[in-house]
């Protein structure tokens, strides 16, 4: 069943979809009156029937509702800026797996060094990628794509979370040793480096602030592969897969 998101809950049992999504429903999907689709709002899935349809607005009747299947682990991915368009792949896959927020981070070995203004031009596309991935994977939310921050800012944010993790190719503990209990509701920050990894200074900064350094094994993973592997393992350990 086609899936869409809405910022507004039903009013008198009705929902409305406007803008690009309305055009997509009417023109691309070619749905008709009484066809059914799912609308997600605030982590609730509404099973809906189309009442009226045009290129600019779809009116729907919400017939039933259920809580969407979001992970109990509230995961923020801090991804150091990779080269080219690799961040798009990271955002797509992190969204599919269950990340709640994705934060680009500028670190010492980042080859791509965007200014805030340059990133703002890319952000709309990145948010669209997250939106489409959330629809495709049946998410209950659209992950937030944050503006670029420094490593110091990322570390400061992670200190306030239940668990902070840095993937470090030079060694560390395993994800399985972190003591995650199945179904536990925790906020987790996962920090992943760029193609060149982290400097020793950056690793020390994280360790001195209580962030766990984690090693994914003897095979060096690409910067776009490592977060996919780590998120999958964390959600599996938490019974969220």
Automatic annotation (TrEMBL):
It is found in: Cytoplasm. CDD domains: RsmE-like. GO terms for molecular function: rRNA (uridine-N3-)-methyltransferase activity. Its EC number is 2.1.1.193. It is an enzyme of class 2 (transferase). Belongs to the RNA methyltransferase RsmE family. This is Ribosomal RNA small subunit methyltransferase E. It comes from Candidatus Faeciplasma avium.
